[in-house]
Amino acid sequence: MSIAPPQIVFEGKFSRAICQNPHQSRLLVAFDHRSFSRESFAPVTPWKLAINREYSQLNVQVRDNDYYLNDDLPALCKALRRFTKPFAQVCGIGFSMGGFGALLLSKALRLDHVVLVSPQRLDFPNQSPFAVDMVEEAEVFTGGSGASLCGNCQQDAGYRAV
What we know:
23% strand, 5 helices, alpha/beta, Rossmann fold
């Protein structure tokens, strides 16, 4: 089975979205997870399982471990909303930081189903008091103030906190 060349859905300074096999009726969305060795965007490779089952595969990536909370967020949301309109079904999978990204972008992507594996919820310490191993990284959500910036980012992008 041959697949069409990848389609760049969005390319910003901090975020990008690239679709493999873009002309199918069903879409599988994968999100970057936190990587301690991240230096830039990771290479995108098609998942044989998705391609063999006639899914398009969208990879939503971030340049830094910023939990998708960067200046590209409003434009990324707009591009994802526009891109996902023709798909009959949109499913997502996210691990850790990618799980948070899946929650954050779920409305823009029109996710029908999502698999979240250990999604980071450090922006809500009262709901995740056990998550003490990444307190320093959680400052991306709070700016060190203890107040959640996540809700503000979602509001700017047209979302409610989930």
